[in-house]
Amino acid sequence: MAENIKLTIIHNNDIHGDFLPKEEDGIEKGGISLLSGYVQEQREKNDNVIYAMAGDMFRGSVIDSEYKGLSTIELMNRLMPDVVTIGNHEVDYGLAHLLFIEKCARFPIINANLFIKTNHVRLFNPYREIEKGGIKVLFIGIITDEILASTKGEDIIGSFVDVRAVADEIKVICDTYKTMDTNYTVILSHIGYDKDQELAALLPPEYGVDLIIGGHTHTLLEEPTVVNGIPIVQAGSGSGQIGRWEVEFDPVSREPVNYKWTVDPIDSNTCKHDREVETLLSAYKNETDEKYMAVLTNFRRTLTHPARNMETELGDLFADVMQADSSFDIMVLGSGSLRLPELGPILHLQDLREFFPFDDPLHLVEVTGAQLRRMIAYVMRDEYLTGHTEFYQYSKDFRFVWSQSAHEFKSFTYKGKEITDDQRLKLGLQGYHFNNFESSFNVPISEVAHNRQPRIIAQSCLSIYEELFANMRNVDSHVDGRITVVD
């Protein structure tokens, strides 16, 4: 009797420019060289291996931002993934630049739900079919609705952003491109773990979706989550681990009969270095080191930002630095724009740019006390506990106590006094959060504009931080109760 046909799909997501290894107890963990070594070894051991990536190769490293993703694509060309879907950060350097970068990629990039509004033409191929060992696997790529948040100025771009609409689009792809010879269908998703579950619940068996490989929410699962008979997997973020999906097929029917999923560590104990990748990476690193290793300032100690959905030492510091001597009352700083868990005690220019890579303009908006309460109440809705919604850090004069059980504020103060409904307060907001004001705060920007016309008060948040930190010494920060959650 013939043996089952074995197929392995190795996959990662949200690498975010995590190119350099970290050393712990003499062991190198992660890094693009070891990751490439792992991929090469898997391909050498087994012809039936597919390497897939579920979005967000870009952002998080000064090597990525300095070359606007071109360095990342060149490094990924050495890894040669078999199929990649785009993530929301792939659009950070502009849509036109992304389309240019696609031309530089020597691997296929797919997406089914981004299109040009005028003629409804897709921007990318929606699918990729790959055959290994006589098994044909259909990959379909989808993106989070946050893609539109990064392309607010590009009105010609649209997307099927509702999960139900995405499910309908998957049906179109399956009806059009899936054939009798297709043995396995995989959704390569960058919509987030929660929405992957919503999507799986909407996919009827006749669509024939066998697996969802996810990204965006940086969720490191211990085992597949099965919804509506469809397994969902996601392998955290960065380059320190990789998902490994092993599936067996009946040799006669070509139907899948069983599967196993693990997350393999990427470290110097289990992987070999790819010296060619190291040489290329060193060339980029030498260039950026020369330019960005200047010391800006020192902290008294290492300061932390352990999670985006809580008040943090670095969140308080960065909100305060932006608000000090400014023309507004409260800095409302996007917690997700702070990209590393810690900084210091020496702060290099490179450290700052990797911690805060988003060079947005700074906007001023004026709100009433009643509007601000509605805004922050929406931010503090129960979903914030997952860490997958927008969350904010605030400068020192603004504090609140939020009752999680009652869904109301126990106190809501500015400079120690309770904020009244008719009180006017000027807020500083990064460009991304201003452009997505209504989706972030559930208050129309048109309503706020009645108070005072919003305006740009600085062209570059990053430049402000560079200038101000360069003139500070022995910097310290402590969590001091600006965000207090009770019950």
Considering the chains and any ligands shown, give keywords for the structure.
single chain; 487 residues; alpha/beta; Purple Acid Phosphatase, chain A, domain 2; 5'-nucleotidase,  domain 2; 2 domains; six-stranded mixed beta sheet; 15 helices; 29 strands; 29% helix; globular
CATH class of the largest domain, named: Alpha Beta
Q: From the 3D coordinates, which CATH architecture of the largest domain would you assign?
A: 4-Layer Sandwich
The major sheet is characterized as: 6 strands, mixed
> With helices defined by DSSP (H or I, 4 residues minimum), what is the helix count?
15
- Any idea how many domains? 2
CATH topology of the largest domain: Purple Acid Phosphatase, chain A, domain 2
Measured between the Cα atoms of the first and last residue, the distance is 62 Å
Write down the overall mean pLDDT: 92
CATH superfamily of the largest domain: Metallo-dependent phosphatases
Helix content: 25-40%
| Radius of gyration, CA atoms, in whole angstroms | 24 Å
